[in-house]
């Protein structure tokens, strides 16, 4: 399941603005770790981390959908 696409569709249906904010970007010995926050109408929702921005956005989208009761 592509959680980011599902969240975008949910936001469009409900006339909400969705954006992702990068909270941190770390490089530990060649291994990258990104932390992203999903924001709906400028309110913080899901937090996600991963080895790429895309993975972190997917994790944040999944958590947001869980908080919204859509998963």
List keywords for this structure.
single chain, 71 residues, alpha+beta, 3-stranded antiparallel beta sheet, 3 strands
Proportion of residues in β-strands: 35-45%
Rounded mean pLDDT is 96
Estimate the helix proportion, in percent: 25-40%
- Overall geometry comes to elongated
Distance between the termini: 10 Å
The number of helical segments is 2
Can you summarize the main beta sheet? 3 strands, antiparallel
How many distinct beta strands? Answer: 3
| Oligomer status | single chain
What string, H for helix and E for strand, traces the elements in order?
HEEEH
Radius of gyration: 12 Å
Secondary structural class: alpha+beta
* Poorly predicted spans: none
Order of strands side by side in the largest beta sheet? 1-2-3
Give your account of this protein's structure:
The chain is built from two helices and three strands. It has a three-stranded antiparallel sheet.
What's this entry about, in short?
The chain contains two helices and three strands.
Protein topology:
Layout: H1 3-13, E1 18-28, E2 31-40, E3 43-50, H2 53-68
Antiparallel strand pairs: 1-2, 2-3
